[in-house]
Amino acid sequence: MGKYELLRARLSHDLPDIDLHLAEPASDGELALVHDPRYIAAIEEGTLSPQAQREIGFPWNEGMVARARRSCGATIQAARTAFTEGVSGNLAGGTHHAYRDKGGGFCVFNDAAVTSRLMQAEWARQHAQPLQVAIIDLDVHQGNGTAHIFARDPSVFTLSLHGEKNFPFRKEAGDLDVPLPDGCGDDAYLEALEQALDTLVQRFDPGMVIYLAGADPYEGDRLGRLKLSFDGLEARDRRVFDWAFQRRLPLAFAMAGGYGVRIEETVQVQVNTFTVAREYWRRWQNRA
Ligand SMILES: [Zn+2]
Question: Which of 39, 96, 119, 248 is at a distance of 20 to 30 A from 85, taking alpha carbons?
Fold first, then answer.
């Protein structure tokens, strides 16, 4: 939990020209675009079974509910802002292990899924063509909840690069899953990313991108089991931002996981993501 506060402090100090806004909580109606109303009510009221609460991984309290709603709301706001600014991010979010009717792995509501559906609904009010969303999930763990939610929805493409032997041990089938071996380093990872982005555009025509910039592929992560360096992760971010910018696709990003042996290093990976994001935000403002 400490990383969230540290990240905000670092961004205020290191990148003072970034506009920081307090996230609005996602409403029941927004959450219900993805989640079962009975699950939303059980979270709100704290009436999940002990087993279901254990799956989420932290105890119920009102602060947890408020945090889950705002974490989802921040990705919604980032996506809306991306349509006007090109690039915008959530200092939390990326809760990709949440399913329609259950949480898991520190995830309560699936922010990328809720945001995809909401952006599609808002887009449909003004445009004849539907909005197609690409979710690029580079957290080290598979985005199982996201894959399951959109399994039968051809309007959202779910790409996940993840550790093959890592949590969740029962993977869901996404649109494109790239399992990586333990110890995978920068070069192999970046090559796999390149191929995955090529495959994505062969199979799908996105109108926006939601990017889960997990910090847990970092070599100093307690749970990640991959071996990406600071430079490798920055190259990863740059590739995704550049890929979206070249196609003029609005990009909203969220932090997802990061469990550094040294928490300052997890936060450094995230600060680097925001530094690259700021560069691409500038390019959006100066684009021809
Ligand atoms: Zn993760």
Answer: 96
